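Lab notebook, page 48
Experiment: co-folding of the full assembly
Goal: obtain a model of how the components sit together before planning crosslinking
Operator: M.T.
Materials (sequences as entered):
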Amino acid sequence: MEDNKPFLTRKRYKLCIKVIIALIYFSMVVFTFLSIDGIVDISTFEPKITNYPSDYRVDYFAIDNYYQFDYDTYYFLATSRNEFVSISKMPAHDSKGVVIRKYQPMMAVKITCNLKENRDAFFIGLESYTDFYYSVENYLTNCIKITSATRYDNILIKKPSDITQSFVSIINDVPVKSQKINLIKSSLSSGYYEFWFIIEYNDEVIEHLHEKISHLTNNYVYYYYDLYWRFLND
Amino acid sequence: MTKAKQKLMVIIPVFLLFLILSSITIYAWYSVDYDLGPTFSATSTIHYFERGRGTELNPYIISNKEQMHNLAWLQNLGHFGEEKYYFVLENDIDMEEMILPPIGTEQYPFYGDFNGNNKTISNLVISNNRQDIPKGINISKISLGSKIGFFGVIGYMNQTSDNATFGKAYDFYLDNIKIINGANLSKIGIIVGENRGSIEKIGVSNASIFIKAGINASSENILIGKLGSKQSSTLIDYVMRIDHLFPTFDDEYVVSNTLLSFDGKASHDGYLYVNKTTYDNITKVYYFSEITSIPFIEKATSPVDSSIAPEAFLDDIFK
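Observation: model returned without errors.
Model output:
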């Protein structure tokens, strides 16, 4: 028997509208959630900055020496043939100061970006997805602290007003880890920018870690890369 | 319009809309982990030796050159304090010309127990020159002193007569060891600069002493730069002395190319007990300047007379 009723009945039409509204709403919720969380760079969806890697860059450099003055701390970037020396391994931390190393147990971070339009709230942050572990196979976010600095030629200057932040804090002998660090949030006009940071070992956390695992026979703790740089352009 | 077409006109736009929105959502989700450039790793040191706790029953085990380096610097930076720690060599160690400071200084003498386990430490350079010290070690607050050898100062701490603590080193060989001295008025010994503790059964071969120009140095008996306060003059007569070396150029003194088997004992009370037969194998200290090679003469037993001019001394050797 042939059914003469049209497919798009009033009831089905309303259902379609509801499905479409639900889909749009779901997408908006996901976007809003990720945007508020500072994870998604919404502007990456703009065609003009799809060449994302050329707009942002992170480099790590060796530090030759450093001096602590009454207020400021001076860090000297290691140079070779008039260029800063790139490194991929932070010189080993040892609390006794006897391990041979070419550079200081710290490193400089340079972030360069080329903003193609004004930003009302330009944001740089760091994020970790790992927990704190009592293990010889460990993660960078469990052992480092980071501070912004200002560069003058081959010297990075850290002032008392430059706040040092770390993912892990030891509170009553218990490690407490936050998953995020906010480094810079400011209003910037378009143009080329260079930001510098100093990454150092967090002595307090490392001492706590070593104390808890000193029964192990391993001589070293290895920290693997788990830093996620975040940029948000509103 | 057929019913099938009506269905398609509804399903296709809804499907396309679903596809676009879900693609954007998935892209947004996965686009958060940007590869911004290089990554890096790091390490921290938990233990400075192969294993052990430094106790008599569970001594620190040393098995490579880095751990020898750690022993020397932990000692000289004062990390062992006045406590007695125990060390055992696990195997032969080729130092590959690594430069170490003398182990133990006047500031922080070695009070530990170093059991060489009859192993050999080879190709080692000992120096008290600050410019020879590897970068990264902060020595601004320490003095390497003027007692130099594989050990700098082996200490003796007279807490009470019954409870004295003194350093002890025994049962090992040093092969191809070079001592570089840059401190004035220093006491040089291949094994130990100044022994106030106890050393026993230590062999030395292919040893040389390098003294910077203008530096005044001496050694009471080559292997031991200076003994403790009470000395046995009778026995020391058998031991070679270098009363004063004062080169005008940077000079190297080849001590011996054969094994000096120190099969004796230098005790913490300052007495030196040497097996004379073994001692006879100790050869002269050859002084040479501006000479690139010199034939080696074994079993020369006469002590060095520092009053003899280098040329006359060499003439004496080549007679």
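Interpretation: The first strand of chain A starts at residue 56 and ends at 68.
Next step: discuss with group before ordering constructs.
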